[in-house]
Amino acid sequence: GQILAMVGGRDFKTQQYNIATQGHRQSGSSFKPFVLATALGQGVSPEATFTANSTKLTIPGGQTWSVAGEPGFSGPMRLRVATWHSINPVFAQLILKVGADNVVKTAHDMGITTKITPVPAVALGGMAEGVTPLEMADAYGTFANGGTHMPPIGILKVTDSTSKVLFGAKPAGTPAIDPAIAYLTTDILKGVIQHGTATAAGIGRPAAGKTGTTQSNADAWFCGYTDRKSVV
After folding, report:
1. What confidence tens digit (pLDDT) does each residue in 170-180 have?
2. pTM strictly above 0.85
């Protein structure tokens, strides 16, 4: 949970605003791993198939949800491959299968602190409230930490002029998701960097992550991690 580095803006003198902690933005597809982890926890196989075609789905309340596919992808597709290439229709079907409320609970258990309204659109990162980079780094760190959530720590120790310790951080982890689910999710997210939308994030060693963009690239995310660090 230790914060090793944080950049909150270009110049604090001109703008006293920390984007990392205060910048609530729509997450785009970087929210999909929480849908994936929820589904895996409910027994959905990473090799289960869903249609990648543009689709119209009936959501709770009776409305019709139209979800466009991705150019070059169609027909039945395995969940693993759909994650690599961030196929929206697959994740729209998936969140209706596992429940938006369960997905939001998974995200909160893993470190997302913003209260998010559990609607199907969160599968694609569509949310009114938005999330901060620190929240996302914290939650992805739960995957890296084998499913145990560690709260972010910015100050390790405070001492007085005589070196007496006035404050010492005492991090305590909380089980968030099953270690086997964290391992399997990480295995799938490695493929995003090896084969999918985040090949540019390859660093020459095992790493996992997920990209996310919102309309007109108003927000562009990459959330990634190794076995030791998470980065957004």
Report:
1. 999 999 999 99
2. yes
